[in-house]
Design goal:
single chain, alpha/beta, Rossmann fold, 2 domains, six-stranded parallel β-sheet, 12 helices, 12 strands, Glyco_trans_9, glycosyltransferase, LPS_LOS_Heptosyltrfase
């Protein structure tokens, strides 16, 4: 589809991408392309509570519409949810956006797009849950493209230059207090994942850490601290857990200072790729074409099985994609990368 002719006087743009962490990082090149084309436009962003801290203070974003979306399906929060939704609908409607972009493509984000009352409501034609019904312009993103390239197609549709991929981050501290306890030369391991099926066993990460020539720093959320501690347990004293001890922005100097980043398919993996830290990514049922680390300096390790990728949420009965992936296979890839 050819780009549409968009007047340069566009004043207000809304980006709808509440979550997840990795998806928000994928959206930053889109934000950069749009702001570069429309430098005088106001850009607002609908983001989930908790993840909003990563975007706070961003010089390209004028306002964050923060929603507690995780509570919206919980009956105990019905009253507060209704108040939040009514306030969001009323507030968005008053803004008179020229363009609203739905990068999520589900029913909730489609309804938020509708609520924006934007003159142009743009999303993907293959989006889920009926969300394209709410768009004025439907763009073919393609399901066999990386998420970053798909998002940039929306920017290209309104005439933005998408020839380069740049990640504009909100300001962050280049040296947090926790950096003081880290070894001078280290690898970061991220052993948790949003989907249990995407999680290579923690004891294997621990065994891998025991074989590496460098010490490992293990990161995760506080909720997944037990996974990080299991990695430490099997590392023979060569891993340090800082699980739950950093903010999202606080992860940035830690990852930026690493020699390598070894991980499952998870949000911090995309942060490492954006920071140009070499990534070794362990993939099972997920599709690295869509959600792998973006860039040529990274390596994806995935068993070639007829059932993969299956996009499963929970491990299946055999879970061969993860169970049959050995520590030695991953170690060999890391070793190869260190020698090149």
């Amino acid at each position: 589809m050819s780009p549409v002719v968009i007047p340069a006087r566009i004043k207000k743009i809304l980006i709808i991408k509440p979550s997840a962490f990795g998806d928000i990082i994928h959206s930053l090149p889109f934000l950069n392309a749009v702001k570069s084309t429309f430098p005088n436009a106001r850009i607002d962003w609908v983001v989930a509570h908790g993840l909003h801290t990563f975007l706070e203070g961003h010089p390209m974003i004028d306002k964050l519409w923060v929603i507690k979306k995780d509570q919206w399906k919980k009956i105990g929060y019905l009253k507060s949810t209704l108040n939040e939704i009514f306030g969001l609908v009323k507030g968005l409607g008053k803004e008179k956006y020229d363009i609203a972009f739905d990068l999520s493509g589900i029913l909730r984000s489609g309804l938020i797009t509708l609520a924006s009352k934007a003159y142009m409501k743009i999303g993907f034609e293959e989006s889920d849950e009926g969300s394209p019904f709410f768009y004025t312009h439907k763009i073919k993103g393609g399901m066999d493209n990386h998420a970053i390239d798909r998002y940039l197609k929306l920017a290209g549709f309104i005439g933005c230059d998408t020839s380069s991929v740049n990640y504009p981050f909100a300001p962050f501290d280049n040296h947090s207090d926790i950096c003081n306890i880290l070894p001078p030369n280290y690898v970061v391991i991220s052993p948790s994942a949003g989907k249990p099926a995407n999680q290579w066993p923690a004891e294997k990460y621990g065994e891998l850490a025991s074989m590496l020539p460098l010490p490992s720093v293990v990161i995760s959320s506080g909720a997944d601290a037990a996974i990080a501690e299991r990695v430490v347990k099997f590392s023979q004293g060569k891993a340090l857990s800082i699980a739950g001890k950093t903010t999202l922005k606080g992860l940035m100097p830690i990852i930026k200072g690493a020699r390598f980043f070894i991980t499952n398919d998870t949000g911090p993996m995309h942060l490492a790729a954006a920071l140009e830290v070499p990534v070794v990514a362990v993939f099972g049922p997920a599709n690295p074409v869509r959600t792998g680390p973006y860039g040529s300096i990274h390596r994806v390790i995935q068993k070639k099985l007829p059932c993969s990728p299956c996009y499963a949420w929970q491990p299946c009965s055999h879970w061969r994609c993860m169970n049959e992936l050995t520590v030695r296979e991953v170690f060999d890839v890391v070793k190869e990368m260190t020698e090149t």
